[in-house]
Every structure is written in structure tokens, then in C-alpha cells.
Specification:
Layout lengths: L2 H14 L8 E6 L2 E8 L2 H12 L6 E4 L2 E2 L9 H14 L8 E6 L2 E8 L2 H11 L7 E4 L2 E2 L5 H14 L7 E7 L2 E8 L2 H12 L6 E8 L1
Parallel strand pairs: 2-3, 2-4, 6-7, 6-8, 10-11
Antiparallel strand pairs: 1-2, 5-6, 9-10
Pfam families: BON (PF04972)
Protein name: BON domain-containing protein
Length: 215
Amino acid sequence: MDDLTLRQNILDELEFEPSIDAANIGVAVDDGVVTLTGHVSSYLEKETAEGVVRRVKGVRAIAEEIGVRIAGTYETEDEDIARRAANTIDWKVSIPRQAVQVKVENGWLTLTGEVEWQYQKAAAYDAIRDLAGVVGISNKIKITPRLRAGDVKKRIEDAFKRDAVLQSQAIQVEVSGSSVTLKGKVHSWSTRRAAEHAAWSAPGVRNLNDQIAVG
């Protein structure tokens, strides 16, 4: 697919997505590498736009340079954003209370603290990404491992065995400290993502190196 066709497909897909106002998003394509520019009215819209582009066939990489401009003349104060973010995280039963701290500077949120599971780190991020006034998020929450490498490896391999699709795939699991490497070959990207999800679901996993080939 040539770059001109890919650019038009991306523009069409952005326009088709109802949760995005694509009027102020610029798209440039060079050899399958997409650069997004312009601005949107919320961080969630910015994140959604990137997700939309990522699913377009032919996209090799994305340089995301979209800015967030809060609609209207009112800018939410950092103190108010911090209070709402902290309360929202506290309401999430999946996140241990007081495990996550929030810092806000000019609308940019930084999450710190320690949790045991990757899904808890992701839950904290998901809880605040659509708050009004947020222009960006840095998720620096640490995942503190509580299991040995052998335990982590077994949990991931057991998760593969429970999955009707993954159990038939030749996927190797290597664990070093809190880092997991997946190797092998699968038939589809959805299967590869399922393997990634299973690996991230193991407690203590901080880094995932996915070397699974698709073909």
C-alpha cells in the first residue's frame, strides 16, 4: 500500500470514530510511519486517536505529537484535578488503598507507588485518563514482585494451558527477575496479544519482551 492511500485510510478511520473530533488532527505518512499532529480537547480523545490509527492496516509505526487543549476558557486547577484523581483511584476496589500517589503539574498527572499486579497499575491509569483537565499521564507505578521466577513462569504456562487457543501454540516462556520473554510463533496478532495478556496477568511482572513471530 502506498503512503497516499494509507493516509486517506487513516483520515477516513479517524472521521468514522464517533468519539473523536478529527477536524484538528493532522496526518502525515512516510513509508508506513505515521505522524499525528494538531490538537484535541481531552487526553482520552488523544489516546483514542492513537488507538484508531494503530488498527489501520499498513501502519508500521506512529509518532504521536497531538496536543491537548482544554475546551473553553476555564482551565481546571491542578489541586482540583489531584483531588478528583485521588478520589477516583480510591474508589477502585482492585487497587489497594494508599498504594498509589498522584502528582499534578499544569494538568499533567504523574502516578507513583507500588502494586503487586500489572492490572492494578493499568486500573489506576484507566481510572483517571478521562478526567476533565488532564492533558497527559505518566504512569510510574512500580510492580513489586512477590513470587520467585519459577513461580511466575509456571503461572504463565498454566494460563496458556487454560486457554483453548494458546494451549496449542508453541510459546516458550523465559523469566529473569521481574522480566518475562515470550518466544515462538503464532498464527494471528490476536493470539499474540492473548499471550501478552496472560504474561502481564502474572504477579510481579514488570517488563515484557514479546519476541513471538506472527505468520
